[in-house]
Give the backbone structure.
Amino acid sequence: MFLTKVAALTLLPVALMGGVVANSSIMLVEVDADDVHIMVPVPLSLAQVAVAFAPDEAKYVDVEEAGQYIPYLADFVDALRDVPENVMLVEVIDGDDHVQVFLEDDNLRVSVDEGHDRGATVNVRVPLASVAAMVDAYDADTNTLRTSRLVGALRAAPSGDLVHVIDGDEEVRIRMW
């Protein structure tokens, strides 16, 4: 009976951690470069717990002069939400280089294609819900962003690629899963 209780107490934290991870959005970071493939899954619930135990200096990010512009992001998100869905906002073509900024399904998308041989391609998806959550993380009194709320902003992102960069033989992908 004693061993059963010890086993139950030993396995309880593992089971609880498994429950936290199973109910979490996962940010997957992949890097392919020079015959190396690195894949790091980051359960955001686990990151949220880690931030709670972080030292005080890690709980806030000082945004210095940029902080004064963060409140305008809320207006920017509201304005974008008034724009019809799936619309091109900006397109620049310069020789073989092509840049597009468009609104698609409540996401701001940026696509950059250096069209020349082995040029880089960059695709970034910024969920408007995540930007709104980031604005909520801003504390105007201290001019900082609260890291726990920044993790929450990532949790607001829907599944799929957030960043995908291909540059020659190197590739980096950050996606929500």
Summary: The longest strand covers residues 26-33.
